[in-house]
Amino acid sequence: MTRFHRLDPLLLLMTLIWGTNYSIIKSALREIDAQAFNGLRLIEASVLMLAVMSLARRLRWNPAQIFYTDSPVTRRDWIAIAALGIVGHCIYQYCFIGGMARTSVANSALILTASPVVITVLSALMGHDRVAPFHWLGIALSVAGIYIVVGHGARLAGETWTGDLMMALAVVCWAAYTVGARSLMQRHSPVGVTALSMAIGTAVYVPLVSPHILRVSWADVSITSWVSLVYSAAFAICVAYVIWYAGVRELGSARTAVYSNLLPIVAMLTASIWLHEPLGPTKLIGAAAVLTGVAFTRARPQAPQP
User: Are 298 and 4 in contact (CB under 8 A)?
Assistant: First the structure.
């Protein structure tokens, strides 16, 4: 007997958003410089998150303590939020978008599969999560499945090494951000922590990439790319980040992180539907291994009834 959490459907929605976001970003980068795209995306996402946070505090609207809590933000909390903003929104975003522009989708997906492993190890070392054998088995199955799906298309050498290195650094930053935010999430809402850390990270990030923003001829950008930018900011950052940290608070970093292994599967299915790329039996076997691994990670023994 196993039981799952009420957040699991929302985490599946998060993987759907992030999985489709790869193709959306790649199409927009044909017209817009990668760092310029990301600069505007973070500005929009920060404004939206701060507006939602302020409205929730004013209305004291707090379903499941996701949008608002009464806990005061201490000086120590501000230092932690600032550090999270620089690591998780400035350095991570710079490396992630830069890596995507410099390497292939297959390389990106394969490198990002290290995220759950790194997060699980950090969580275990810091005493946040007890990692059961089933969890390690689930991670191993998911990583093996993703290698079956995209590993044959990845070349971690040659002309893509700069992008590969940036994606690897992005994995480390994302793991540190996820595990580091765990203690803050125990006292503050996911919306509040995400909004404040994102605003600080954006304030550092935008001046760094301002030359990229100024070089873009924004009047020549198509409506499709503008829609992609708005979608990526509102959903891939705002909505998905809130779901991610709601999961981190309720389920723990390690169990939430394994959902990132579903991203290549969503990307593969999206390409099959929209781009008519063939699936084939090999990719289906890999997808089945990923899904089985996630199920092993999320399943928990049900407590016996007295």
Answer: yes
